[in-house]
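> example.struct
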C-alpha cells in the first residue's frame, strides 16, 4: 500500500541533503564531533541576521534529529525482532524490555520510553509524509505528536483498523 505521496507505507523515506542527492548517514564519531562543535557555538562573532539564521538552522536540525531518532528506534525494533526470532523466542515475548532500554538510552522514564517507542513506530510505519517533513525540518516534533494523537482518536478504533486522517500534519503547514 502506498500513501498519496507514492511512498510505500511502512518503508522509511531516504534522507536527502539536496534535491536528488542522498546524504551519507553520520557515524557515532560524527555525532559526537557535532556535539563538540555545538558546545562551542555561542553566537558572539555573528551579526543579528546571522544569529536569526543560526536559530532557524538549529531548529531545523532539532526536528531532523527527532526524525532520525524515530528511524533508528524502529530499526532497533526490527533488529531485535529478527535476532530473537532466529533464536526461537516466541513472538509474544520478543522485544520485551526494549522500551526500558530505549528509555535508558534517552535518559528518561520507562513510561516515556514506551510512549516514544509507540510514537516512533507510528511515525515511521504509518506517517511517511510526516516523517519526510520532520526529516527536512519543516514541521516540529510537537506537530508530529499532535498528528499521531489525532490519528488514534479519529475513530477510536485500534491502530490496525483505523481510518486514515484526510491530511497529515505535514500538509497543515
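> example.seq
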Amino acid at each position: 500500500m502506498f500513501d498519496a505521496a507514492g511512498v510505500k507505507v511502512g518503508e522509511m523515506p531516504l534522507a536527502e541533503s539536496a534535491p536528488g542527492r542522498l546524504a551519507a548517514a553520520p557515524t557515532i564519531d560524527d555525532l559526537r564531533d557535532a556535539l563538540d562543535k555545538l558546545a562551542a557555538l555561542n553566537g558572539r562573532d555573528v551579526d543579528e541576521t546571522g544569529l536569526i539564521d543560526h536559530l532557524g538552522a538549529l531548529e531545523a536540525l532539532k526536528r531532523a534529529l527527532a526524525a532520525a531518532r524515530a528511524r533508528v528506534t524502529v530499526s532497533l525494533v526490527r533488529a531485535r525482532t529478527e535476532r530473537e526470532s532466529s533464536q526461537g523466542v516466541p513472538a509474544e515475548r520478543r522485544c520485551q524490555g526494549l522500551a526500558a532500554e530505549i528509555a535508558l538510552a534517552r535518559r528518561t522514564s520507562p513510561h516515556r520510553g514506551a510512549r516514544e517507542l509507540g510514537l516512533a513506530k507510528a511515525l515511521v510505519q504509518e506517517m511517511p509524509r510526516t516523517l519526510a517533513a520532520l526529516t527536512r525540518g519543516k514541521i516540529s516534533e510537537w506537530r508530529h505528536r499532535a498528528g499521531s494523537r489525532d490519528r488514534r482518536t479519529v475513530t477510536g478504533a485500534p491502530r490496525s483498523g483505523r481510518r486514515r486522517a484526510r491530511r497529515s500534519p505535514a500538509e497543515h503547514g
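> remarks
The chain has one domain: 34-172.
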